[in-house]
Amino acid sequence: MQNIGIFYGSSTGNTESVAKKIQEELGADIASIIDVADASVADLEKFNNLILGTSTWGIGDLQDDFEGFLSEISNANLDGKKVALFGLGDQYSYSDSFVDGMGELFKALEEKNCELIGETSTDGYEYDASGAEKDGKFVGLAIDIDNQDDQTEERVADWVAELKNQFN
């Protein structure tokens, strides 16, 4: 498995915490963790494999730092890279926009000539709508720390085990 860059945007620390759990599962010698508030196009381009994570704010909005980072993604050459996504949201209080931020990242990457990997099942979640659901699955790992934190460790471990099989 080649180098992996984990890029996250976090306002309350929850997305950063999940990014660190992902890094632990992958191994710190393989995966670097980077706050998008401090990241550039060059940072994205130096990794063969990317994991991008954001929380959802308001009614389906990206986390502020990630909103600003979309231009970096737009300008980056991601040809041939494998990209996985994770998103945090509250499936009960925001059941009509659960993990929509992750869906916004997916849309930004669809035209980038990269391979999007890491989709997950929607089983075990209760929500009405999600911009991160495509063909009956989430486009990445959905995490609800507010209501299902007891499942976070297992969800991360299972997802990372799948990613290890898909990354170069």
Report a brief summary of the structure.
With 168 residues, the protein is an alpha/beta fold. It has 6 helices and 10 strands. The longest helix has 15 residues.
Describe the structure.
This protein has 168 residues and is α/β, with parallel strands linked by helices. The protein has helices spanning 14-26, 41-45, 64-75, 100-109, 145-148, 152-166, and strands at 4-8, 31-35, 49-57, 61-62, 82-88, 115-117, 120-121, 133-134, 137-138, 141-143. Strands 1, 2, 3, 4, 5, 6 and 10 form a 7-stranded mixed beta sheet that branches. The model has no long low-confidence stretch (mean pLDDT 94).
Observed structural traits:
single chain; 168 residues; alpha/beta; seven-stranded mixed sheet; three-stranded antiparallel sheet; 6 helices; 35% helix; globular
